[in-house]
UniProtKB/TrEMBL annotation:
It comes from the Bacteria. The keyword Transport applies. Gene3D superfamilies: MetI-like. The chain crosses the membrane at residues 31-53, 92-113, 125-145, 177-202, 235-256, 283-305. This is Sugar ABC transporter permease. GO terms for cellular component: plasma membrane. The lineage of its organism: Bacteria, Bacillati, Bacillota, Bacilli, Bacillales. It is a multi-pass membrane protein.
Length: 312
């Protein structure tokens, strides 16, 4: 026969079990919703990154069923490759020029749109015009600028009419102008992102700060350097870090305008990696280059995350 204590204990155990099951169900429910996204990230992100890193330590991968593990030999070879060094130099010029110009143009146009001297309709019109390049895809931008920079295109026509040059310049086919040309195209295509973000930051600055500084006798230059820039500093740092990562990975625009030519004049790390993998079928070397690029982008991403946490 069951004792009275046993009879009282069984409902208590069942109640505890039900509470524990409900607690685990409540805790695991968010992860069930996240499961499809996690699976996609593992399949499309984690596994490919792992494979690329693994390939960088092997020789003649994919084409060879039993590739040989060679350690850091691929890294030694790629870091001494003249084509890789040229791609790094071009990328630094391209990224540095683009980021600096994006910040200057974005700040200039944002301050112009934030002024009180423009009417509402004029302001709205300028916003649409200035933001227009950001709405175009890379293919549209490439086709548009290839037409404009054609030897018989509009830009050469105006230069000749203004007596700035007497020749039809080969903007995208000349080693002297190709890198400058693609950099200018990328600047034109990317500055609206800075402009819109900085404009949002400017509209968040209290007008009381400017009014107080004006009473104290501060001119426009001092107000810009002592009020505007310090208030925009968190936004500017975030924009620069993001733009650096995006620009260093720019591929479509370069590939559809110059293809890395002429004679490696516009060869970037992105086009260099693509050619190694899909033109020369040197998958191990392409993976090695990709790992180096991934390492650089990861460092920038770490700085970005730390900066965001510092803001919070």
């Amino acid at each position: 026969m069951r004792t009275e204590t046993q009879t009282q204990t069984e409902p208590t155990r069942g109640l505890r079990y039900n509470r524990k099951a409900q607690y685990l169900k409540k805790k695991s429910e968010p992860y069930l919703y996240l499961l499809p996204t996690i699976l996609l990230m593992v399949i499309l992100l984690i596994i490919p990154i792992y494979m690329v890193i693994r390939y960088s330590f092997y020789d003649n991968v994919i084409l060879n069923k039993n590739p040989e593990f060679i350690g850091f030999e691929n890294f030694k070879e790629i870091l001494t490759d003249q084509s890789f060094i040229v791609a790094v130099k071009n990328t630094l010029i391209f990224v540095g020029g683009s980021v600096i110009a994006h910040m200057i143009l974005g700040m200039t146009f944002a301050m112009l749109l934030n002024t009180k001297y423009l009417g509402k309709k004029t302001n709205a019109l300028f916003r649409v015009i200035f933001a227009l390049p950001w709405m175009f895809t890379a293919s549209v931008i490439a086709v548009l600028w290839k037409m404009l920079l054609n030897p018989n295109g509009v830009i050469n026509y105006f230069l000749i009419e203004l007596n700035l040059t007497s020749n039809h310049l080969e903007w995208l086919s000349s080693r002297d102008f190709a890198l400058l040309s693609v950099t200018m195209i990328n600047i034109w295509a990317g500055y609206p992102f800075f402009m819109i973000s900085i404009l949002a930051g400017l509209q968040g600055i209290s007008s009381d700060l400017y009014e107080s500084s004006a009473i104290d006798g501060a001119n426009i230059v001092k107000r810009f350097f002592y009020i505007t820039l310090p208030q925009l500093k968190p936004i500017l740092i975030s924009l620069i870090l993001l733009d650096f990562v995006w620009t260093i990975q720019q591929f479509a625009l370069i590939w559809m305008t110059t293809g890395g030519g002429p004679i490696n004049a516009t060869e970037m790390l992105s086009t260099f990696i693509y050619k190694l993998g899909f033109s020369k079928y040197q998958y191990a070397m392409a993976s090695t280059s990709a790992v180096i690029l991934l390492f650089v982008c990861t460092i920038i991403a770490i700085f970005y995350v730390r900066h965001q946490r510092g803001q919070e």
